[in-house]
Amino acid sequence: MRRYDKSDLGRLVKVDDGGQAQLYSAPLFCHPEVTGQVLYKEYERKVLDRFGSALNNGLSTLVAYPDSLNPQQRTGLLARTIWPKAVIVDGKQVVGLIMGKANPAFWFESDGEELLFNLKKLLASPKHIERQTLTVPSLRERALLARQLITALHHVHRNNLVVGDVSGNNIVVTNPNRVPDGLPGGAYQVKFLDVDSFRFQHGSPPVPQGDTPTWELPESLQLDVEIAAASGLQRDSLVARQRLRTQATDIYKMGLVMVRLFDETDDAPLMYEPINARPRMVAAFGEPLTKLLLMMLDEVPERRPTSEYLVQNWSRFGGAA
């Protein structure tokens, strides 16, 4: 079942506050596709007032999308995302969604508290990673993680989807201390969060796709100049273009992930240029694959490689298996 009334959830316990939604656990509610804790994400009133129609029309379609895939495609997509399991309605309005809590491998303990292990924690200097009580990944582990990230993005893109807000906050990784040794693809496995802001390539997202600060796009910055000089309908058209996220913008942001993963300086979370990362990338991948990966940062979207091309040519360009 992909649709429930809010009253079906029973008692709710607040877990977290977000910019667009509140997150609750639903300890009395069970869903056949969730092993463990069910989480309920309820949109803020300001989001419902502005985007309620889009949620009503689009979220159910997005939630049910994996049901339309063949078993191999479905498994590949669900293995790399925290996909919502159902929409929640209050009366006739979609007000939120339910999903499973990320399994324990995606968490780590700090000062007696369990924290979600998001990718942002690895886009930092080794000293900063250690201060977070985390293990600093080796060069090979970073290379394997890079391939996991590109592969995960490809599983989204091959299904005609756009992530939109690719950033260190919206990707979770496994804790290498909580997974078996010798795991295929390395100890760092990845999943995308916030699937409700995904959109089909030729559609609109149920909730707005934005840019996390310090993850801005060159095409958006270029449009800023044009928007400042425009007015009326022309300005509205330019603003709409600036807000549009595509698979090419996903590629650019994943290119920033590559640079920040290998930068290893205190400035890593802010880096747009591979000044420090490039030598480490060459050591990890070799020159040909490094050059291909850095093409993801091309200011011209059409010149960026697709996720399909990256996956298909990874080994040919010398990447780690």
TrEMBL record:
Domain of life of the native organism: Bacteria
Cited Gene3D superfamilies: Transferase(Phosphotransferase) domain 1 (1.10.510.10)
Sequence ranges assigned to domain Protein kinase in this UniProt record: 1-317
InterPro entries reported for this sequence: Kinase-like_dom_sf, Prot_kinase_dom
Name by which UniProt lists this protein: Protein kinase domain-containing protein
Record organism: Gordonia alkaliphila
Organism taxonomic ancestry: Bacteria, Bacillati, Actinomycetota, Actinomycetes, Mycobacteriales
